[in-house]
Predict the structure.
Amino acid sequence: PVNVVTAPPAQPGIITGITAICPTKTLTYSIIPVSGATGYTWSVPTNWSIVSGQGTTTVSVNAPNNATSGNISVAATNVCGNSTLSTLPVTVGSNGSVSAGVDRFICTGTTSIQLAGSISGVINNNSEWDWVVTTGTIVSQNSLTSNYNLPPGFTTGTITIKIVSNQTTVACPDVEDEMIITVRPLPTATI
């Protein structure tokens, strides 16, 4: 059978791989195969190199000490041309940091507080960090300033809330920070 191709392939889907990098690293990026594509053309930021996989759906790349931030990009190809690029922004730096905010002291009966987390360095988007709690709930896991709901009936003691780098998207040493909430009984007045 003859396969007639009349147009370039569709744009590749989302590129999966690490987005925050502390060199020197060899990393893997991939996409799901595109229907009608006969090959793939990958590009990497300045000073990076493609180690293997050019022309396929998965590439192994090297981010050396002088690697720069930029985009990992891929186009699907066939005899009619190239698709629109699919890109994944990547950030290169020497470190990343997270902060859960200052410790808090609250009174019994307080049901929620607003968090004050922060991120810096190569950690610069929501997929690169996570809130971790063992009790209570974070209203919006992807917000550094989300509300934290204390567990019902918690009247005294401490609760630890952590923010940690997400090792599925950050190729740097693990970083984490914690904030301690101290719940104190209501003050009593004496006459």
Notes: The chain has a mean pLDDT of 92.
